[in-house]
Amino acid sequence: MTKYYDSNGTFKAYTNDDKNLFSESGEHLGYFLNGFLYTPDGQAIGHVRDKKILGKKGETLYYRT
């Protein structure tokens, strides 16, 4: 399992398959495809760079260790 944290270091999301992202409570937040993160209905949330998921404005949404 890969865990993702917010900017305060709080656990917020995880993936078991590096394809789908789930909240800490198990809600499906989206899926990874070609370096981007999309909502379950296909809208782009942001992109993956190194160990971070960056929003549309370049802000860090989540990071992993």
Overview of the molecule:
By secondary structure, this protein is mostly beta strands. The protein has one domain (2-63). The chain is built from no helices and eight strands. Strands 1-2-3-4-5-6-7-8 form an eight-stranded antiparallel sheet, with no helix packed on it. Strand 6 (44-49) and strand 7 form a beta hairpin. The chain is globular, with a radius of gyration of 11 Å. The N and C termini lie close together (12 Å). The model has no long low-confidence stretch (mean pLDDT 96).
Total helix count? Answer: 0
Q: What pattern of helices and strands is seen along the backbone?
A: EEEEEEEE
Q: Which structural class do you get from the secondary structure elements?
A: mainly beta
Q: Cα distance, first to last residue? A: 12 Å
List the strand order in the largest sheet.
Answer: 1-2-3-4-5-6-7-8
Helical proportion? under 10%
Inertia-based shape? globular
Radius of gyration, in Å, reads 11 Å
Number of beta-strand segments: 8
Low-confidence stretches: none
Mean pLDDT: 96
How many structural domains does the protein architecture include? Answer: 1
Major beta sheet summary: 8 strands, antiparallel
Percentage of residues in DSSP E strands: over 45%
Q: What oligomerization state is this entry in?
A: single chain
Tell me briefly what this model is.
This protein is 0% helix and 55% strand. It is mostly beta strands.
